[in-house]
Amino acid sequence: xxxxxxxxxxxxxxxxxxxxxxxxxxxxxxxxxxxxxxxxxxxxxxxxxxxxxxxxxxxxxxxxxxxxxxxxxxxxxxxxxxxxxxxxxxxxxxxxxxxxxxxxxxxxxxxxxxxxxxxxxxxxxxxxxxxxxxxxxxxxxxxxxxxxxxxxxxxxxxxxxxxxxxxxxxxxxxxxxxxxxxxxxxxxxxxxxxxxxxxxxxxxxxxxxxxxxxxxxxxxxxxxxxxxxxxxxxxxxxxxxxxxx
Length: 245
Fold this sequence. Notes:
Layout: E1 8-11, H1 17-28, E2 32-37, H2 40-43, E3 52-56, H3 62-70, E4 77-80, H4 95-123, E5 126-131, H5 145-165, E6 170-177, E7 180-181, H6 183-190, H7 195-204, E8 212-213, H8 214-225, E9 236-239
Parallel strand pairs: 1-2, 1-4, 2-3, 4-5, 5-6, 6-9, 7-8
């Protein structure tokens, strides 16, 4: 029947990368998944997969998030995955860069959690999983100033929700990947002045000799979404191949 049989799951950033892999993995385990993204064309690629319903949603827009929440009588698991990676130090980060990153990486999780949490509280059962990063309060990373700041905030948000609602049956955890081989990463590499050297630089910091795959992160997400992790809350789950060591 699957490890997630019958669970209702809502997730963001499902069009590609970790979000896509998580949506597919959860559906394979028997969940009913609402997969959202702002990229409608890429999102359509999930149409037809049993257990997945797609919907174009901008999770930085309060009205769209609230409308999405109203479509669900209840939700067992909320995956907040949407994110943006800004490259540069604090001196390379303009106010618009700062605001955009915080809006996508942190405010979207605030909006989604605030919209769906009351439904979970009504059932005295719920599970929120936020996508953070090793580049955060866990590890200082070169040229990731605002990104790391935003992901440290995600860890703080995760612990806050977990602490506030643990006695009402709510769990909240975050996933902290290292370098994951996704279309987003490949696009950032190609955008560099010397893509070949940029790729070598990314590979040089991989102590295992390879990058993580989106599917490997999705396996961890399935565990956190399942009842197997029922006693796990308020924690950072690192999947980085030892990069932080």
